[in-house]
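== Fold encoding ==
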Amino acid sequence: MGTQVGPVLASPAGRLLFFVAPRTAERLPDLLYRMGWDDASLDLACHGLGSYLAAPPVALGALGPMRWLRRPTAENRPPEARLLLGTLAYACHRTRDREASLAG
């Protein structure tokens, strides 16, 4: 990929949460559009001002705990979203297609 990722959380439900530089949520639809992606068709969420995430050591009931795949440190600061977004959008797209083919 060439870009260093910042902190990454794994949820007990199997979702990965990639931390990116602040103020991305409001720009996400435009960033995706300029990259040729339809944000409505991707299972991609962006948390921003006013939202929150559960972080370790929080457990999500019977599902289990949130856990860090890459802990936040001074060296792995969250990158600009545009540097990861194409790769993440592609991964979401491929996952959606694979799930659709398995379902039907």
